[in-house]
Specification:
With about 675 residues, this protein is of the alpha/beta class. The chain is built from 19 helices and 32 strands. Strands 10-9-8-5-4-3-24 form a 7-stranded mixed β-sheet. A 7-stranded mixed β-sheet has the order 11-12-13-14-15-22-23. A 6-stranded parallel β-sheet has the order 18-17-19-16-20-21, with helices on both faces.
């Protein structure tokens, strides 16, 4: 059945867009979108809630194990010094119960090797990518912004440094994806549904994965094999974070992941490329709807002031990027005004130095106020000044120089916020017995009671939950949904209920609820939509037309497509003139498949190829711009007044004008083709 419009030029048979949610948690997004023949993965985040089933890894023990049995390390405390490690008198091996396992995206829901591309929205949703690229047979391209790539590299390095250790279990290259969710790996995820996980990938896996990533800029159009145009738009959550728009000739889909409308250090949310879409997938909204960021920040400052008045230490478990930049600026002003400017601030992470440096050099990804400082010139962040006047000290670990320079009371930023690995475990053990000390839980994804469960038995220091979550609030989400005006919105049911998107529907918008580990078909057909159709002339001569409405179709086919109009070809025939005979006859010559040419044409590359062919007199005479804004380049070949030919290049077409010689025309055509990609 061929479905044509009134001009008989387009097929009105549109397959529904299929969305698969491969994540086990609404705040660890991983989606696969199937649009026609294209399949694209959107984000692949690790679910860290699984680590709550394991005991904390003692970082000091691991250090002693690496240094040898005779290693001894001392640390200053508010009441004196503590010595850890005493030759052969202390066992330093980590038991099997301490092994950490992580919940990765559920790859059994979709054949990963069939994916065409992966789009990453921010560095938090990048962390499971080595698992996908190195252990699941992925063969496509990965795209993210330059800043996302840089910060994701730092987070992967820190994660592998904290979790990987001698004798600990890791994914090997030989581990097939089918085994990663098997009984071999323990039950790890709490809650009503239980999921299986696997050990963390190796640092070598992470490096191999990073080598496969292609970086893009905001508003840069990326062609995914010529079928889909993908564009990254600033999401306002963190440096380099993006929302994505996917466009075919007749369909527009947008992906809103981890967006923010609060004023922070990063570039503001850009909605221009997200409006009037056919489908919008919304994920990774606020995890703390009852706590406003301003209130959490006030609680953060009050708790620090209270502990400093009692000469206690403050521990702040955090990631080495993101909100920590804003908190350092806030602390600098707050401590000075409160009379505690002398209190040292420590930032401890294997990537701490790199993180602070990247923040200063990625000025184009910052807000307008930060960008303006670069041209003065001044560092965009105040942490540079804090480091210079020694109010902020940066260390890669708690060993060596830090143990010698540490003084109390102090404020320590370190990781990991899950409190199961990293230097934070050492400080929790060291300071838990002093009620003047305080631990501030600021990461909105790690503020549950399970986070502190291994330490509560002998814990006297205060634990204050002040999650600073700048992701979209419920009221902001509803307002944004009305503003972007999408026809179909895919969203978690609980989030939709909180934002009143279910009880008070948005006009002209259909809300589709989607839970983790669920697949959803979304009808996307609209009047005039379709795809170009090329019919062999022999088949065309044997076809007859007839309007047959209503159309009777199987239930399975009705789920896969929407029908507007019908043009019937004759049923299979046994006579020589039938359509089936034309298609099945072995005597008829078969249509040979042609190569598909796609990509963006570079003018400089084309001129280089022309010179290699001996055509040296080439001029770009004009650069016109169409009504849609796309440029048109006109290249003149030969003399100015009497050119041998003209090449006209626009966004979607190329034309060779005024060339009478067939061989010369073929040479020019070959040059154009050589500048593009071929399948």
């Amino acid at each position: 059945i061929l479905l044509l419009n009134s001009e008989n030029s387009y097929v009105l048979l549109m397959e529904d867009m299929r969305v698969s949610n491969l994540s086990v948690s609404k705040n660890c997004p991983c989606f696969v979108v199937e649009i026609g023949d294209m399949s694209v993965m959107l984000d692949c985040a690790i679910d860290f809630s699984s680590v709550y089933q394991s005991q904390p890894i003692e970082l000091v023990h691991r250090h002693i194990q690496k240094q040898g049995a005779d290693a001894t390390t001392s640390y200053s405390t508010p009441t004196g010094s503590v010595q850890i490690g005493s030759g052969n008198n202390e066992k330093t091996a980590i038991s099997d119960e301490a092994y950490l396992q992580f919940v990765m995206p559920e790859t059994s829901m979709f054949p990963i090797w069939d994916l065409d591309a992966i789009l990453i929205s921010n560095y938090r949703t990048f962390l499971a990518l080595p698992y996908i690229t190195e252990h699941c047979g992925f063969r496509g391209n990965v795209y993210c912004t330059v800043a996302t790539f840089d910060y994701a590299s730092l987070l992967l390095e820190e994660l592998c440094e904290y979790v990987s250790s001698p004798g600990r279990s890791q994914l090997s290259k030989a581990t097939p994806a089918s085994r990663l969710h098997s009984e071999e790996f323990g039950v790890i995820s709490p809650g009503p549904r239980r999921y299986r996980g696997c050990p963390l990938f190796s640092w070598q896996d992470a490096q191999n994965c990073l080598a496969k990533v292609k970086t893009v800029g905001f508003d840069e159009r990326i062609s995914l094999f010529g079928g889909v145009i993908a564009t990254a738009h600033s999401s306002g959550l963190c440096i380099g974070s993006s929302n994505w728009s996917l466009m075919t000739r007749f369909l527009k889909m947008v992906y809103l992941a981890g967006s923010s409308q609060f004023v922070t250090h990063c570039r503001a949310l850009d909605l221009n490329g997200l409006r009037d879409a056919d489908v919008a997938i919304v994920s990774d909204t606020t995890n703390c709807p009852s706590t406003e960021p301003d209130c959490a920040l006030q609680s953060f400052c009050d708790s620090i002031l209270d502990s400093l008045k009692r000469k206690g230490n403050i521990l702040i478990p955090c990631s080495p990027t993101g909100v920590v930049y804003d908190l350092l600026e806030c602390l600098s002003t707050f401590l000075s005004s409160a009379g505690f400017a002398h209190v040292p601030v420590y930032f401890i992470s294997p990537v701490a130095h790199s993180s602070l440096s990247h923040a200063n050099i990625h000025s184009e990804w910052l807000n307008a106020a930060k960008q303006s400082k670069v041209y003065l010139p001044e560092p965009p962040f105040i942490h540079s000044m804090m480091t210079n006047n020694h109010s902020l000290s940066v260390y890669s670990s708690i060993h060596g120089a830090f143990s010698e320079a540490f003084r109390s009371p102090s404020i320590v930023f370190t990781g990991h916020p899950c409190l199961r690995f990293g230097p934070v475990v050492h400080f929790m053990r060291l300071w838990a017995g002093n009620e003047a000390n305080c631990v501030l839980l600021i990461d909105p994804d790690f503020v549950s009671r399970q986070t502190l469960s291994p330490f509560v038995a002998n814990m006297k220091m205060r634990a204050v939950c002040c999650p600073i979550d700048t992701r979209l609030t419920d009221s902001q989400l509803r307002k944004l949904t009305c503003e972007v005006s999408c026809r179909n919105v895919v969203i978690d049911e609980d989030v939709a209920t909180r934002a009143n998107l279910t009880s008070q529907p948005v006009p002209n918008t259909n809300i589709h609820h989607m839970s983790p580990l669920q697949c959803l078909n979304i009808p996307t057909s609209k009047s005039g939509a379709g795809a170009n159709l090329l019919i062999d002339c022999r088949l065309g001569r044997s076809m007859t037309t007839a309007v047959t409405l209503p159309v009777e179709m199987s239930a399975a086919r009705k789920k896969a497509m929407s029908v507007v109009g019908v043009l019937n070809a004759p049923p299979p025939a046994t006579h020589d003139g039938g359509a089936a005979a034309v298609l099945k006859s072995t005597d008829s010559p078969q249509i040979q498949p042609t190569s598909f040419i796609w990509g963006n044409l570079s003018i400089d590359k084309l001129m280089k190829h022309l010179r290699l062919m001996g055509i040296v007199d080439v001029r770009v005479d004009e650069q016109l711009r169409t009504e849609g804004g796309s440029p048109t380049h006109v290249l003149s070949l030969g003399k100015v007044n009497d050119p041998d030919g003209i090449i006209i290049l626009s966004e979607h077409s190329s034309n060779i004008v005024g060339v009478k010689d067939k061989q010369f025309r073929k040479t020019l055509t070959d040059c154009l083709i050589s500048c593009l990609n071929q399948i």
